[in-house]
Amino acid sequence: MTELEFRALAREGYNRIPLIAESFADLDTPLSLYLKLARNQGPSANSFLLESVVGGERFGRYSFIGLPARTVLRATIGDGDARGHRTEVITDERVVEEDRGDPLAFIERYAARFKVALRPGLPRFCGGLAGYFGYDTVRLIEKTLAHTKPDDLGLPDIHLILTEELAVIDNLTGRAYLIVYADASQPEGYSRARERLRDLRARLSRHVEPPHTRASVRRPEHREFARDQYLAAVRRAKQYIEAGDIFQVQIGQRISKQFADAPLSLYRALRTLNPSPYMYYYDLGDAYVVGASPEILVRAETRQSERVVAIRPLAGTRPRGGTLEQDAALAEELLADPKERAEHLMLIDLARNDIGRIARTGTVKVSEQMVIERYSHVMHLVSHVEGTLRPGMGNFDVLRATFPAGTLSGTPKVRAMEIIDELEPVKRGIYGGAVGYLSFAGDMDLAIAIRTGIVKGNVLYTQAAAGIVADSVPESEWRETEAKARAVLRAAEQVEDGFESE
């Protein structure tokens, strides 16, 4: 883009204009490019890497690297009192704006400030807001959910990175697109963006070393829910089901352990052990979010001038078999299990209801129903539900209609969440919320925050839940949470072993 073209776009009212440089990247991986671009010089806080594996077997076409950002949005949600809400805009580690209203409403207004000159041919995410909406975001949507459990992690309820510098890796062609957004209101905006692109392109040729990992002693695990306490919680949940309060509820447990190794090493192990549709590594400065989630919360995208929203319920679980024959037998067992099928059908209905609140009449459909998807330690039943958005509906309307996932709460949603508040011992935090992005291009893609580890203060935390229904066996539900948590814990063990195995 020439400076004349840039000035012309600025006169049209655009205040963010992308400058793009293209380079071969076929000798690198997304991980090595992240190290070169985000970790090679200076602090790496508020940077990220997003990858995807389709069907558990092949990488998605695009990977995204968010370079260390100057600006982040952090929100804390008041406990039963809207006056307790606080959203901060932090630029260069300084609070430059604060709002005490509804954080979702503020973030929606904030995102609308950016008038972006979009470039054709770029993927859905080419800059915007990336990060997480923690589980307690639901208290902005369902006001009757007043009281949270103790917050022992001390993380913001919402953390979003304003991504104005990023690299998009095309894994099909082996090319990297370096994107820097110039602020059209600044006299030197164009020249600074050009200089930044030259610097980033130079970094691509530099050599980097991976995080040093050496074998160490495996640390013991700590459970917030003792096994007997979890079994008692399942029995209590079944009493609510028998009384007619709910049909299903997700009761989870948190597991933690000391972890002093590099969080990026944990991501390296997790992406190898549990390749998933949503793989993410977020460096938030004082904490790290490392995940390999198999499940969409919601996706909103433009297809042939129409806005389409999709949910992909994932419920019904079996461990992977040790042989192909065992694996096939477990899949057949899962497909035939009446308890798993009944639970899954309830969640399909819930997804249809959620999308129906914002979709045009007659457009909601189930395009896939109860197919098997396999991951490293478990297999799941999965379906696909989508609909066409009504005119006037935006991404935050979609988020409010679908958050949190029925697969992490229950049915009916509100009563199930009240029971979760009662029975789980600690605040969920990021777990059960959403991780992903809201693009400058208008698309939104959010994964459910499961199969996710949080590293803070040299401690690793991970959580997992099981769906409790009328005929649930408490011991079986406990084992399901253990199997789901094992992916992150096994990744930590692999790092502790120095990436060596016998």
Identify the notable features of this structure and list them briefly.
alpha+beta; 11 helices; Anthranilate synthase; 12-stranded antiparallel β-sheet; 502 residues; 2 domains; 32% strand
- How many domains, as an integer? 2
Number of helices: 11
Amount of beta strand:
25-35%
Helicity range of the residues?
A: 25-40%
- The average pLDDT score comes to 91
Biggest sheet record: 12 strands, antiparallel
Secondary-structure content class: alpha+beta
Number of E-state strands: 26
CATH topology of the largest domain: Anthranilate synthase
Shape: globular
The first-level CATH class of the largest domain is given as Alpha Beta
Classified in CATH, the superfamily of the largest domain is: Anthranilate synthase
Unreliable residue stretches: none
From the alpha-carbon coordinates, what is the Rg to the nearest angstrom? 22 Å
Terminal CA distance: 54 Å
| Quaternary structure of the protein | single chain
Second rung of CATH, namely the architecture of the largest domain: 4-Layer Sandwich
Question: Could you explain how this protein is built, in words?
Answer:
This protein is of the alpha+beta class. The protein folds into 2 domains: 3-203, Anthranilate synthase, CATH 3.60.120.10; 222-277 and 295-496, Anthranilate synthase, CATH 3.60.120. It is built from 11 helices and 26 strands. Strands 1, 2, 5, 11, 12, 13, 14, 15, 16, 22, 25 and 26 form a 12-stranded antiparallel sheet that branches. Strands 6, 7, 8, 9, 10, 17, 18, 19, 20, 21, 23 and 24 form a 12-stranded antiparallel sheet that branches. α6 (263-273) packs across α11 (474-496). The relative contact order is 0.17. The mean pLDDT is 91.
